[in-house]
């Protein structure tokens, strides 16, 4: 009984099966108490009375008729008889039995309120999810983060329940930082998540430590690593530059700085472009955009001379010829662009920057909910079709991850970008 009180009076989860278990336990307790009352109501059926009568019978059998000793028959104490310091015993029940019964009754009555209180608390806690889940994306529709979030959401929803729905909510701006700030302030009930990027949780906190209004590690529940891929250095399809060497030579010879752009000031494209220009030995004029699709549209119109963009965002424009890739920022070539050399191949030793996407939520999502989300994401990511579609969009699917390993991954990447900021000397305001 005391075990049930502890189990149901503390940390009660509240699913339907446990509610039913509580109700059965309450019924069992009541039945047990009633049977105890009935068993002790008549002296002839009391445990102590039966034991004494059995002892008398054994003595008669052992002594035989010659030595039979007739002990006085056990007579129950009168109704008014009392023992000093104790309550009056009930008729037909001795003080020892009465004490046992009273103690059992007190424990049972003390236990029942806790059991009864547990069931309403359980019924008041709805199952999760009980409404649509929103995944916030800090970039415009059509960019790499948006593409990855939509592909994942489509496969995760059925694994969270037959009626589960996941919607995508785009909140672009500041390289994903606006969305991150918004998510960090929301209730941690598991109904609002975000697909964060290397910009919002790596380069922005590294390059904008005085203006980013969230802790990239401490303000979030880290759920799963989705994937990533290299950045591309891209020029308009009409550009005369067909190699990194030609672009660098033009930048150094130009009277006015070349215009270049990426998705948000302080984002991974911005930091990658600054590192590229720093190591190449030229300075350009940076133009921030609100998302990868906006950058590539500017490229289509030849409004800028080059951009540094995530491969997944650039692929549609590379395929239709409106843009042309000169290099990838990973150590080696990418399978989607086998003819495009990496920066390392073109003389930039040690240049290695890739972007990534992680699934997160506000700090404090219950462990049970976080584990369900992670499990749904990992099961979805194991699907060959989803992995193929992600790879086709330029997002290399990640290896399996846990909430703990996801947090460790984000922490290590943040340290890497902080090192790059120190090398380039960047100190940026919100753009």
What this model shows, in words?
This protein is of the alpha/beta class. It has three domains: 2-61 and 90-124; 133-228 and 356-424, Bordetella uptake gene, domain 1 (D-Maltodextrin-Binding Protein, domain 2); 230-354, 3-Layer(aba) Sandwich (D-Maltodextrin-Binding Protein, domain 2). It is 46% helix and 15% strand. The chain contains 14 helices and ten strands. Strands 1, 2, 3, 4, 5, 6, 7, 8, 9 and 10 form a ten-stranded mixed sheet that branches. Helix 1 runs parallel beside helix 4 (95-124) and helix 7 (198-207) packs across helix 14 (403-424). The protein is elongated, with a radius of gyration of 37 Å. Mean pLDDT is 80; it is low at 1-16, 42-50, 56-60, 62-90 and 118-124.
List the helices and strands and how they pair.
Elements: H1 2-9, H2 16-39, H3 47-63, H4 95-124, E1 133-137, H5 144-156, E2 166-170, H6 177-184, E3 192-197, H7 198-207, E4 220-236, H8 244-253, E5 259-263, H9 268-280, E6 285-289, H10 292-300, E7 306-310, H11 311-319, E8 323-328, E9 354-362, H12 367-381, H13 384-392, E10 396-397, H14 403-424
Parallel strand pairs: 1-2, 1-3, 5-6, 5-7
Antiparallel strand pairs: 3-9, 4-7, 4-8, 4-9, 4-10
Helix pairs in contact: 1-4, 2-4, 7-14, 9-14
> Structural class, from helix and strand content?
alpha/beta
Poorly predicted residue ranges: 1-16, 42-50, 56-60, 62-90, 118-124
CATH class annotation of the largest domain = Alpha Beta
The domain count comes to: 3
How are helices and strands ordered from N to C? Answer: HHHHEHEHEHEHEHEHEHEEHHEH
Task: Give the rounded overall mean pLDDT.
Answer: 80
């Amino acid at each position: 009984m005391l075990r049930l009180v502890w189990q149901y009076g503390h940390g009660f989860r509240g699913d339907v099966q446990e509610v039913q278990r509580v109700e059965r336990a309450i019924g069992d307790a009541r039945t047990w108490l009633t049977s105890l009352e009935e068993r002790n109501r008549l002296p002839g059926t009391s445990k102590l009375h039966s034991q004494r009568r059995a002892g008398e019978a054994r003595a008669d059998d052992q002594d035989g008729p010659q030595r039979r000793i007739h002990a006085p028959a056990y007579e129950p104490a009168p109704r008014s008889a009392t023992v000093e310091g104790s309550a009056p015993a009930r008729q037909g029940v001795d003080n020892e039995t009465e004490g046992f019964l009273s103690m059992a009754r007190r424990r049972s009555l003390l236990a029942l309120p806790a059991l009864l209180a547990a069931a309403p608390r359980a019924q008041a806690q709805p199952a999760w999810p009980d409404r649509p889940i929103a995944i916030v994306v800090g970039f415009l529709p059509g960019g790499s983060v948006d593409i990855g979030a939509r592909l994942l959401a489509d496969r995760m929803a059925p694994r969270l329940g037959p009626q589960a729905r996941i919607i995508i909510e785009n909140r672009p701006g500041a390289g994903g930082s606006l969305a991150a700030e918004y998510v960090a302030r929301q209730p941690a009930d598991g109904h609002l998540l975000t697909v964060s990027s290397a910009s919002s949780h790596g380069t922005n906190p590294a390059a904008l430590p005085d203006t980013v209004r969230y802790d990239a590690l401490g303000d979030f529940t880290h759920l799963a690593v989705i994937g990533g891929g290299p950045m591309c250095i891209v020029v308009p399809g009409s550009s005369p530059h067909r190699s990194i060497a030609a672009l660098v030579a033009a930048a150094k010879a130009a009277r006015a700085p070349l215009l270049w752009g990426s998705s948000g000031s302080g984002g991974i494209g911005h930091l990658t472009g600054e590192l590229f220009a720093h190591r190449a030995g030229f300075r350009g004029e940076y133009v921030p955009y609100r998302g990868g699709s906006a950058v590539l549209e500017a490229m289509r119109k030849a409004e800028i001379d080059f951009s540094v963009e995530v491969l997944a965002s650039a692929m549609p424009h590379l395929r239709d010829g409106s843009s042309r890739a000169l290099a990838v920022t990973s150590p080696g070539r990418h399978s989607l662009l086998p003819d495009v050399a990496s920066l390392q191949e073109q003389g930039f030793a040690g240049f290695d920057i890739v972007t990534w996407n992680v699934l997160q939520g506000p700090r404090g999502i219950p462990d049970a909910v976080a584990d369900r989300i992670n499990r749904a994401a990992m099961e979805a990511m194991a699907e060959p079709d989803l992995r193929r579609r992600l790879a086709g969009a330029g997002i290399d699917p990640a290896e399996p991850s846990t909430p703990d390993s996801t947090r460790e991954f984000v922490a290590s990447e943040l340290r890497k970008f902080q090192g790059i900021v120190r090398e380039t000397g960047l100190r940026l305001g919100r753009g």
